[in-house]
Structures are given as structure tokens and as C-alpha cells.
Amino acid sequence: MTYREIIFSGILDCFVELDYNTELCSIRFLKGEERLKETRTKIASIELDEYFKGKRKDFSCEMDISRLPAFSRKVLNETRKIKYGTTITYSELADRIGSRAVRAVGGALSNNPFPVLIPCHRVVAKSGIGGYSSGVDIKTRLLEFEKNRSITFNSS
DNA sequence: AGCAGGTTTAGCG
DNA sequence: CGCTAAACCTGCT
């Protein structure tokens, strides 16, 4: 029994698919042009939708990453601490978990099952934006969006 | 074992 | 500044 919800992201101009089991198990961006029907009943879908509408900065929903390798879990848990509208580099993230495996950090991020919820887009290269498994264009838009939105949050 | 990464640094033009 | 090469560590075959 698997359950699927779809929301639309205006800022990314694409649909986003959330797969649930008993818990949320994956998030991905849909590339196709086709119109899809949106459904938002689960907490993660609702919170993610609010995020895309600029009404939410952090997430309360549960994310199960227990089956991932230990190193990946460390990386993702550390990534969750990065605040809205800010960025750190791959090497800094490696430092924070007491490792020098900057490349492996990138590898762990590329396997992030919950993009946006676990803000791997906030990890950038020392010079340049770095990569993003769903496409660097998405990463760029997310960062731009958060940067502009931070100003709004602070001044309101 | 071997290999490929969402990197980084240094070295050279 | 741009390009190349090598070192770094983890996870998959």
C-alpha cells in the first residue's frame, strides 16, 4: 500500500511528487509537461506546498533516513541544520561532521531522498554553485527564492 | 578490488 | 581567470 501525492511549485514551474508508505519515503521533481492533479492531505505535502508559496521556512514532518548508510545519515542530519536563506560549502559540511571527505559529502547529498525538506540545495561549492542531482537550474531557483524571501520574512 | 562521484587545491599558461 | 591533475573518502559492482 503505497500512496502518492502531487503538488505544483510555481517558483520551480514544475510538479513535485511525494511518495508515502507508512511514512514519507521520497520526493522528486517531475519534468513532464502534462497537467497533473494536485492532492495535499499529508503533512509533508502541505508543508512543502506552504514552503513553495513562501509561507514556511522549516519543516516539522518526520523523515525516515534510518536505512541509509551511516555516513549519509550524518551528512543529511547536518544538512538539516542549515538555516533558510543561508548556504555552506561542501568542505564546511565535511568539517562539521568531522570528516574531510568532501566528495563523499556530495555523493551522500545526491542520494537525498527528501530534497527541499532536507535542504541539500543550501550546500554549494567553494567557488560556484556546485551540483544538484535534480538539475542545477532547480537548485538555483530555490536559492534565489530563499534569498528574496528572507528579506520579506525579516521585514514583516 | 576497482571505479565513479553534487569537490578541492595547487600548478601552469 | 581558465584548464589540468592529483589527492581525498564513501558506497556500489
Please give the structural blueprint.
Elements: E1 3-9, E2 14-20, E3 24-30, H1 43-52, H2 70-80, E4 88-89, H3 90-96, H4 102-110, E5 123-124, H5 136-154
Helix pairs in contact: 2-4, 3-4
The structure holds a DNA duplex (13 and 13 nucleotides).
List keywords for this structure.
156 residues; alpha+beta; three-stranded antiparallel β-sheet; two-stranded parallel sheet; 5 strands; DNA-binding
Spatial order of the strands forming the largest sheet: 1-2-3
The radius of gyration over CA amounts to 15 Å
- Specify the structural class: alpha+beta
What's the β-strand tally? 5
Helix content: 25-40%
| Backbone shape | globular
Structure, explained:
- A three-stranded antiparallel sheet has the order 1-2-3, with helices on one face. A two-stranded parallel ribbon has the order 4-5.
- The longest helix has 19 residues, at 136-154.
- By secondary structure, the chain is of the alpha+beta class.
- It is built from five helices and five strands; from the N terminus they run E-E-E-H-H-E-H-H-E-H.
- The relative contact order is 0.14.
- Helix 3 (90-96) packs across helix 4.
- It is globular and about 45 Å long.
- The protein binds a DNA duplex (13 and 13 nucleotides) through helix 3, helix 4 and strand 5.
